């Protein structure tokens, strides 16, 4: 089977960068030389991002990233796309590469125990294991593991407060159960498992490589995954084998929409979905319709529409910063 022309690489590495700002411009230059797009975040704690381009171009950028301090063992998940899934390139310096707001934790040394995708089913099927989805509510809405707890967070920085509020209900007052946690590519679990260990939870596990690696490694007939996995690019979601999913993005509110969501009478492509219909005025919806008309007209004339988007945005462009 021919490989898709675009290679997508989701990557992260917790490392110690004494001057992340000094790493930004050389990294940006390498990406632009090779026409690679996506988002890369640099912080004192390491690097996080998703990029896409021709295979040789992505490989060249990854080779550069592996020369950064502590990044020789960079963790990368590959998938493919028929068209470029990102609109632009962003290389930015941040306080954290994924925002949790708990500066005392050290994911590089304190993260929980890795569980390979092939061993994950056995762990989460154990009645003595609590399974927690560490992603945000809009991600969980289109897919998760059967029986996983959804914290209902709007942002990853909400996770610590949620756990502290729910701790007794989750863990009880007797012998602590095992806690298994998962996220899209693994980075949020590095922090969330380190956080739980700081909170005194002893047996904490997380899915190595995240959902993306599980969907790639575990045959569909053996899978405990239900639905699709939200990704932060124009594909919106992927399924087993990392094949492009069926979800669409609501261009008014950025919520991912399943096939069932798209069947709602309140769904209008580029204008609204059931989740945001009541959050927008008719004037706003009219503005969304007009912008879509202008985009369609510009495409028919063979050029891009560069006007300001009156809605919250277009397809996601990179990685979760929170």
UniProtKB/TrEMBL annotation:
<dbReference type="InterPro" id="IPR036280">
    <property type="entry name" value="Multihaem_cyt_sf"/>
</dbReference>
<dbReference type="InterPro" id="IPR040503">
    <property type="entry name" value="TRHO_N"/>
</dbReference>
<dbReference type="GO" id="GO:0016705">
    <property type="term" value="F:oxidoreductase activity, acting on paired donors, with incorporation or reduction of molecular oxygen"/>
</dbReference>
<dbReference type="GO" id="GO:0006400">
    <property type="term" value="P:tRNA modification"/>
</dbReference>
<feature type="domain" description="Rhodanese">
    <location>
        <begin position="125"/>
        <end position="223"/>
    </location>
</feature>
<comment type="similarity">
    <text>Belongs to the TrhO family.</text>
</comment>
<keyword id="KW-0819">tRNA processing</keyword>
<dbReference type="InterPro" id="IPR001763">
    <property type="entry name" value="Rhodanese-like_dom"/>
</dbReference>
<protein>
    <recommendedName>
        <fullName>tRNA uridine(34) hydroxylase</fullName>
        <ecNumber>1.14.-.-</ecNumber>
    </recommendedName>
</protein>
<dbReference type="Pfam" id="PF17773">
    <property type="entry name" value="UPF0176_N"/>
</dbReference>
<keyword id="KW-0560">Oxidoreductase</keyword>
<feature type="region of interest" description="Disordered">
    <location>
        <begin position="301"/>
        <end position="322"/>
    </location>
</feature>
<dbReference type="InterPro" id="IPR020936">
    <property type="entry name" value="TrhO"/>
</dbReference>
<dbReference type="Pfam" id="PF00581">
    <property type="entry name" value="Rhodanese"/>
</dbReference>
<dbReference type="InterPro" id="IPR036873">
    <property type="entry name" value="Rhodanese-like_dom_sf"/>
</dbReference>
<comment type="function">
    <text>Catalyzes oxygen-dependent 5-hydroxyuridine (ho5U) modification at position 34 in tRNAs.</text>
</comment>
């Amino acid at each position: 089977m021919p490989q898709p022309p675009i290679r997508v690489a989701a990557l992260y590495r917790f490392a110690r960068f004494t001057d992340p700002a000094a790493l930004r411009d050389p990294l940006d230059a390498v990406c632009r030389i090779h026409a690679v797009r996506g988002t890369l975040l640099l912080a004192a704690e390491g690097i996080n991002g998703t990029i896409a381009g021709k295979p040789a171009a992505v490989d060249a950028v990854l080779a550069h990233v592996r020369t950064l301090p502590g990044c020789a063992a960079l963790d990368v998940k590959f998938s493919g796309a028929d068209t470029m899934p990102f609109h632009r390139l962003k290389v930015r310096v941040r306080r954290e590469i994924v925002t949790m707001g708990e500066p005392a934790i050290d994911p590089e040394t304190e993260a929980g125990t890795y569980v390979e995708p092939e061993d994950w089913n056995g762990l989460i099927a154990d009645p003595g294991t609590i399974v927690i989805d560490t992603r945000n509510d809009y991600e969980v809405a289109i897919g998760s593991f059967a029986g996983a707890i959804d914290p209902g967070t709007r942002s990853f920085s909400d996770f610590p407060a949620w756990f502290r509020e729910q701790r007794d209900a989750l863990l009880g007052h007797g012998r602590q159960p095992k806690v298994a946690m998962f996220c899209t590519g693994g980075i949020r679990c590095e922090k969330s498992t380190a956080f739980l260990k700081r909170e005194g939870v002893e047996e904490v596990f997380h899915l190595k490589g995240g959902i993306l690696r599980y969907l790639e490694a575990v045959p569909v007939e053996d899978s405990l995954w239900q639905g699709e996995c939200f990704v932060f690019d124009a594909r919106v979601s992927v399924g087993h084998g990392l094949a492009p999913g069926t979800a669409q993005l609501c261009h008014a509110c950025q919520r991912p929409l399943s096939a069932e969501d798209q069947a709602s009478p309140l769904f209008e492509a580029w204008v609204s979905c059931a989740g945001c219909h009541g959050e927008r005025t008719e004037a706003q919806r009219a503005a969304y319709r007009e912008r879509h008309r202008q985009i369609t007209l510009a495409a028919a004339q063979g050029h891009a529409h560069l006007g300001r988007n009156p809605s919250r945005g277009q397809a996601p462009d990179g990685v979760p910063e929170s």
